[in-house]
Design goal:
The complex is a heterotrimer of chains A (525), B (322) and C (277). Helices cover 31% and strands 20% of the residues of chain A. Chain A is an alpha+beta fold. In chain A, helix 8 runs antiparallel to helix 10 and helix 15 packs antiparallel against helix 16. Chain B has 13 helices and no strands. The two termini of chain B are 13 Å apart. Chain C has 277 residues and is mainly alpha-helical. Chain C is elongated and about 75 Å long. The chains are: A alpha+beta (525), B mainly alpha (322), C mainly alpha (277). Chains B and C meet through helix 1, helix 6, helix 7, helix 8 and helix 10 of B and helix 4, helix 5, helix 9 and helix 11 of C.
């Protein structure tokens, strides 16, 4: 009996030891990541193409970061307070942070970033930070003051929207032409080492990183592999440990995620929350009649689109706000797949079938971003043909597509947009009347205009009462979905496939665009 | 001396042609719908007119058309191909980075095509009318009819996916090796794409070598040589190959320039990092400087190839030339 | 190799196959078992009972796709070749007949087009005019006409000094009538042989353009099927191999036919410069 107990004890202790040893992060290791296409530069703010963000977010940091619920977490700011009237935000900055060139990080850098840099160059954040005035209280305290409350502000301090740049390198220079852009200097866990054009970007561990003992990894390589099949092969064979977003065809990602040595996740894009939809030029008939738009919603089998076209990496979108958002309202009008309902609405509209069974002939401009979108356009055409709407597909390249979008030269256009971390930042821009700006993409191109919607969005942006905001956004979702302002398709999910040996790659709402300070590689067995 | 005179008369024509090509391409691309500034802006999710204008002025896209044309032609004269707006690198650098890959592929393929084609052609001629002749002729005809991307895909399916003998994509392993290991690696990756390309082009060389062999075999001096007791092999080596050399070199010279320009498809199938693919990607991005640069460089290659071929012909056979 | 016997069998086999393909193309809407665009079956089904040649990633029937694809490939091949012929014959006739400055200009013009990297030019044209039936036809035509022009030019130069032309001129016939009614019919036979080869080149060029994604999204063509199936080509070999086989057989039969028609149309002596990569 004693013998048995002893053996049991050894077994338990041993397992616990082995288990915890396996769970303990180890120092060292090189991570090979895919990256495509080769970005023009990697300083966030100056370069916002998706592939620029992946390396950039390892080198630079921001005041805050965000978990999966988009709740703010400290980063370069240790703590912060928001005045009750919402007009003053005070941030206490970390003290022991150094730039990669050795100079200390102080409030000066924050002042420069938010007062001079972002408001000049960042296409998305400049609108946010033009509302604020940044002042230095002392070397490690800054204050943001506003004239009107702006609730989304607290969610705008991520590395992609608000990277903190070194004032001593950029102040007074032409930001875009500054030679430091080629050898970026940040505060992040990884330093820029080398960029071999056409081959790779090489980052190395920042030994003086402000989090003691971190990062665990020694090096990261971002390699430019132009062919999707090669990238899939690379991660399958273990040559690469991580491939994310558009680096893998969805079909491949689904297959790879099931392999024993790999794992896949769709989490980590909460800061972006992309949604795809078809928007119509509501200045023209029949798109100006909401019954037409509702009919199209009913005619599309969005479950099939999710499964067949997006290989399961999608979620049917019920409305303008992403289901992961705290403001998401599930109680909106449902548009289930129903050919009968679609036909009824079209009949009610007066769009009867003619001799050849056609009710209307429309043009659909698809997205030129790959085979997935070609299939989406094709399946939309087939679905609408079934209810009597003849669709002619138009194709163009990326430049032409943006051109036609911003100049409103389309009848129906398929698009997707990141709805960002707050509806006031990423959602309202598509629907409010005053954002109809011809010549500027990603505004209200459809021409949808509803004064009730305008009022709801305006009030929700101006108040910081969370309960009230939830109420307002709830209502605006109901109105927009009732109106079928656009035909929502799916919430996009971008897969990140990693080798199981790579741990802590996706640990918060920034996902693979987190700074990888806590990422580590299990030793190869 | 005559060579110099020929060159002197050739030069102005060549320069005029190249200038005309530059002008043509410039006009065409600028006529295209789509604004490169918006593409950059689009990718970053931006919606700011000022931002887009900033990009436009940064890259010189906002000057009036005639000014842009004049600048462009002037720079061409200095062999300055401009800067790629997407990667901020000089176009010349991008092209010189990628051109060797295309040259490696096309020259290898051409040499293989010539080698196989000539051998088959000679064998075909020697068996004139026999089953070998017919078989080789049919084989050549089959090769000529195949679409390049289909051949490539089939070879990949059989030899890479199926048998696992060769890698399917790229010019080197994804994580490149060093030194001789790298050279062997590249050679390994080169096999399938070069084979694909050479299959497509060998038909011409089969025909060429066959007819020139037949010519030689029919001539009197061969019969004389045979009467003198020279072996068949000696006859072959001596006269046949030399006779076949001329048309082969001519054809190869004419082809090489165009092969480089036509490499887009094969480079797409095999993800080969050459200038064909560079041009195609640039086209989709409306990266004017790059696509114009590749066009120009390919045209220069054709012109140069024609010149070199002409020179070689005159040197080899002094009877040529008016 | 060009005994009348072998010429005969090539004529028959080539012509016969081509006629069969043309028939299939013509009758496509009636003989295809399904609408090629309709999402019918399970995705990526290998060739089998329900779907003879399998399905693609959206569950569309490949057999129907191939049958309708024949239509598109032949249509584009023929139309663009006809356009190319039109351009080439016009340029060549004017150059060969009038000689002098017209000839010099035409020759420079033709040479210019032959120096341009043909396929890159075609891609450029399609991208500029936006992918569609019209732009593909125009692009292929603009890239394949030069060989015809040269041939017609030399024919005209030979023929214009013949007696029947002198006779026509003394009768008072105008230039246009002489060109069209007197010389052209005599210049045509070699042009026909070259023309038939141009159709093959045009079909291959169209398939390459579709493969690269520069195709009309409302038309299903063989190249398009192969190109759009690239993401799944490892799992679904039939989507790449079978449409390519159709292309191969079509082009082969055209080449056989051309070869059978006569030595002047000898395909293997021409290099593949005029458009097909």
């Amino acid at each position: 009996m004693k013998r048995l107990l002893q053996h049991l004890l050894v077994l338990v202790l041993g397992s616990w030891l082995v288990f915890s040893w396996a769970q303990t992060p180890v120092r060292g290791g090189t991570v090979q990541s895919t990256l495509w296409p080769e970005p023009p530069g990697i300083v966030p703010g100056l370069f916002l193409q998706s592939p620029a963000l992946l390396p950039g977010t390892k080198i630079f940091e921001s005041l805050l970061t965000y978990d999966f619920n988009l709740t703010p977490q400290p980063m370069l700011a240790e703590s912060w307070t928001v005045a009750p009237d919402g007009l003053k935000y005070t941030f206490k900055l970390r003290r022991n942070v150094k730039w990669h060139d050795g100079k200390p990080f102080t409030a000066d850098d924050v002042l420069f970033t938010f007062g001079e840099f972002l408001v000049d160059v960042h296409p998305r954040s400049k609108a946010v930070f033009q509302r604020t005035k940044v002042t230095k209280i002392d070397d490690f305290t800054v204050e943001f003051t506003l004239e009107k409350p702006f609730a989304p502000l607290i969610r705008s301090f991520d590395t992609i929207g608000a990277p903190v740049l070194p004032a001593h390198i950029y102040r007074g220079t032409d930001f875009r032409k500054n030679p430091a852009n080629a050898t970026p200097v940040g505060t992040g866990p990884f330093k820029f080492k080398e960029w071999k054009r056409g081959e790779y970007i090489h980052l190395t561990r920042n030994a003086d990183y402000w989090r003691p003992g971190l990062p665990y990894l020694d090096e990261i390589y971002y390699r430019f592999i132009p062919d999707a099949a090669s990238r899939a092969l690379g991660i399958e064979s273990g040559q690469f440990q991580i491939a994310t977003q558009n680096d893998l065809e969805l079909r491949d990602a689904a297959r790879l995620a099931k392999l024993p040595a790999l794992e896949g996740t769709a989490k980590g894009w909460e800061w972006g929350s992309p949604i795809a939809w078809i928007q119509m030029n509501v200045r023209q008939a029949p798109f100006n009649d909401r019954r037409f738009r509702q009919a199209v919603m009913h005619a599309l089998d969005r479950n099939q689109v999710r499964d067949t076209i997006f290989s399961g990496f999608a979620k049917v979108a019920t409305g303008p706000i992403h289901s992961s958002s705290p403001y998401y309202e599930p109680g909106v009008r449902q548009y289930e797949f129903s050919v009968a309902k679609a036909e009824a609405l079209l009949d009610e509209m007066g769009l009867k079938r003619d001799a050849s069974g056609v009710r209307a002939k429309v043009k659909l401009l698809g997205l030129p971003y790959g085979e997935v979108w070609n299939r989406a356009a094709e399946s939309t055409r087939q679905a609408l043909r079934r209810v009597g709407i003849e669709v002619v597909l138009e194709s163009t390249d990326a430049a032409g597509w943006v051109d036609r979008l911003k100049n409103w030269e389309f009848e129906m256009i398929m698009t997707f947009l990141t709805t960002l971390s707050d509806p006031a930042l990423g959602v309202s821009r598509t629907f409010i009347t005053e954002n109809q700006r011809k010549g500027v993409p990603f505004t209200n191109e459809s021409g949808y205009s509803n004064p009730r919607v305008d009022a709801l969005f305006a009030e929700a942006a101006a108040t910081i009462d969370e309960a009230r905001r939830k109420q307002l956004y709830s209502e605006v979702q109901k109105v927009l979905v009732d109106d079928a302002a656009v035909v929502w398709l799916v919430e996009l999910q971008w897969p990140t496939v990693t080798n199981r040996r790579l741990r802590n790659a996706v640990i918060n709402g920034m996902g693979p665009n987190g700074n990888f300070a806590e990422a580590w590689l299990e030793r190869a067995r | 001396m005559r060579l110099l005179a020929a060159f002197a008369s050739w030069l102005p024509r060549a320069l005029l042609t190249l200038a005309a090509i530059g002008l043509l391409n410039f006009t065409l691309i600028r006529l295209a719908p789509g604004d490169p500034a918006a593409v950059i802006a689009g990718e970053s999710g931006a919606a700011d007119a000022a931002f887009i204008d900033r990009i436009r002025s940064d890259y010189g896209l906002d000057k009036p058309m005639p000014v842009q044309v004049a600048h462009y032609l002037g720079r061409l004269a200095r062999l300055d191909l401009g800067v790629s707006y997407r990667s901020n690198l000089p176009v010349w650098q991008l092209i010189t980075q990628r051109l060797p890959a295309t040259l490696l592929l096309t020259v290898t393929a051409l040499l293989v095509a010539i080698a196989i084609g000539t051998t088959l052609g000679i064998a075909s001629a020697r068996s004139r009318g026999g089953w070998l002749d017919v078989a080789i002729g049919s084989f050549a005809m089959l090769c000529y009819a195949m679409p390049v991307f289909w051949v490539g895909l089939v070879l990949v399916l059989v030899f890479s996916v199926g048998l696992g003998w060769f890698p399917a994509f790229g010019m080197a392993s994804m994580i490149p090796k060093q030194g001789t290991a790298h050279l062997i690696d590249v050679a390994h990756q080169l096999v399938l794409p070069a084979l694909t390309l050479s299959l497509l082009h060998l038909a011409v060389y089969v025909r060429l070598s066959r007819s020139s062999t037949l010519e030689v075999l029919d001539r009197d001096f061969v019969r004389t040589a045979q009467a003198k007791g020279l072996t068949d092999g000696q006859v072959m080596r001596g006269h046949v190959l030399r006779n076949a050399l001329l048309p082969t070199v001519t054809m190869a010279g004419l082809q090489i320039g165009h092969l480089v320009g036509g490499a887009v498809v094969i480079e797409t199938v095999f993800a080969w990092p050459g200038i064909g693919r560079l041009a195609f990607d640039a086209l989709l991005q409306r990266d004017y400087a790059v696509i114009l640069g590749v066009f120009f460089v390919c045209s220069v290659m054709v012109v140069l190839a024609n010149l070199v071929t002409d020179v070689v012909l005159r040197l080899v056979d002094p009877r040529i030339g008016r | 190799m060009s005994t009348s016997n072998s010429r005969n069998w090539r004529l028959w086999i080539g012509g016969g196959t081509l006629a069969a393909i043309a028939l299939v193309a013509l009758l496509a809407p009636w003989i295809a078992p399904h609408d090629p665009w309709e999402l019918l079956g399970p995705p990526l089904e290998p060739p089998g009972q329900a779907f003879l040649l399998g399905t693609d990633m959206l569950g569309r029937d490949l057999l129907s796709g191939l049958i309708h694809g024949a239509r598109v490939s032949l249509l584009i091949g023929l139309t663009s070749s006809l356009c190319a012929l039109l351009i080439g014959v016009t340029v060549g006739a004017l150059a060969g007949y009038f000689g002098g400055t017209a000839d010099r200009v035409a020759v420079r013009f033709t040479e210019f087009f032959q120096v341009i990297p043909a396929f890159l030019f075609a891609i450029l044209l399609v991208a500029i005019m936006l992918p569609g039936l019209k732009s593909v036809i125009v692009a292929i035509a603009l890239v394949t006409w030069p060989p015809v022009a040269r041939l017609v030019r030399s024919e005209f130069m030979t023929l214009r000094s013949r007696e029947f032309v002198e006779a026509a001129r003394s009768l008072g016939l105008g230039h246009r009538q002489i060109i069209v009614r007197e010389i052209l019919p005599n210049a045509l036979p070699p042009v026909i042989a070259v023309g038939s080869l141009m159709v093959a080149t045009a079909i291959l060029t169209e398939s390459s353009l579709s493969f690269l994604g520069l195709a009309d999204p409302n038309l299903i063509s063989w190249g398009y099927i192969i190109g759009s199936s690239r993401p799944v080509f490892r799992e679904a070999w039939w989507l790449s191999v079978l449409p390519g086989l159709c292309l191969f057989v079509t082009v082969l039969s055209i080449n056989l036919l051309a070869d059978g028609l006569g030595d002047e149309g000898n395909p293997l002596l021409r290099s593949r410069r005029g458009g097909a990569p």
